[in-house]
Amino acid sequence: MNDFWVDDCFKKMEIPTGVLKPGVNEVTADVDFRRTTNVEALYLIGDFGVKLEHRRRVLTTLPTQIGCGNYADFAMPFYTGNLTYLLSPEAYRPLLADFADADRIVLTPDAFTGACVKVMAAGKTAVLGWEPFEADATEAVRKGLPIEVTVVGTRMNVFGPLHETEKPAWACGPDNYVTTGERWTDDYSLLSSGLRGFIFKGQRRKRG
Asked: 8 or 72: which carries more pLDDT confidence?
C-alpha cells in the first residue's frame, strides 16, 4: 500500500480479512532488504481493542462508548491519537450548580493526560494548553447545545519507552529505552491517558 501511518517511515501493509483467528496468531512480513528499507518495529493497527495481561496482549472489540478515565480501562492502552468526548445537554445539566446569577460559565478539565485539550462550544473552539485551562461554555449551556471536548494525545504509549519504571520521566532520550537493570520492568509501563473528568464553574463580573 502507498498509505502510511503517523510518519512516512511507517508504511501500511494490509492483513486480509479473515486471516486472524481466535487464539494465538503470528503475523510476519517478508520484504526485500535494500537501501530504502527501514528497519523499524512493526505495529498492528485497526479497529480493535487490546487487553493487557502483564506482557500478553489480547485483541478484543472496541467499546461502543467510553467515559472519563484511563484509556487502558476501555481496552485502548496503546491509543495515542485524538479522542473527542461529546457532552450532551442531558449529560452535563445535572453537573451545573446554581448558575442562574452567573455572567459567565466556564468548563475546565478536572485532569487529563495529553498535549492539550480542545473545547468546541457553540461553534467556537478554545485550545487549553496552559493555565487556567478554562473554556467559555456560557452560550452553549444557555442554549442547551452539545459540547465537544477533545484530548490531543501524545505518542508516548506507542513509541515508548514502554518498559521504564519512571513514569513520567522528566525528559526522554535514548537512555530511557533501557532493556535491563533497576529501571526496567517486564510489564508495560504506560502513562495513564485520557480525560479524568470536567468541572463547570460560574463566574460573575466585578461590579462597582
From this structure: 72
Place of cell 528499507: 37
Phi and psi angles of residue 71, each rounded to the nearest 5 degrees, phi first? -55, -35
Q: Cβ distance 158 to 40 under 8 Å? A: no
| N-terminal to C-terminal alpha carbon distance within the chain | 66
Residue-averaged pLDDT of the chain: 88
Listed residue (59, 60, 70, 67) closest to 86, CA to CA: 67
Find residue 107's DSSP bridge partners.
135, 200
- The DSSP annotation for 110-124 comes to EEEESSEEEEEETTE
CA distance 170 to 156: 13
* pLDDT bucket at 207, cuts 50 / 70 / 90: low
Residue 123, phi-psi category: left (phi > 0), alpha (psi -120 to 50), beta (remainder): left
**Counting beta carbons within 10 angstroms of the beta carbon of residue 141, is it exposed (0 to 12), middle (13 to 18) or buried (19 or more)?**
buried
Rounded average pLDDT over 36-44: 79
Residue 29 CA to residue 31 CA, distance in Å, equals: 6
**Dist CA 48 CA 162 (whole Å):** 20
Q: Are 126 and 135 in contact (CB under 8 A)?
A: yes
What is the value of pTM for the model shown?
0.84
- Residue with cell string 504509549: 157
Residue 49 · residue 36 · CB < 8 Å:
no
